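To fix ideas, we quote verbatim one protein's residues and fold tokens.
>
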Amino acid sequence: MSVRLFAWLMIGLGVLLPFVGWQAASPVGFVGPVLVLLGILLLVTRRQRGR
């Protein structure tokens, strides 16, 4: 699995988790935005290393 694919999977999972978390009333809803930010960070840092 490439870093780019992993980052996109983290972003996708991060977008879905808040919906699941708020329905289940658990802290999972707060993990989603963190995964989105980490995925974006991975994509940005990967682009900078490739230059």
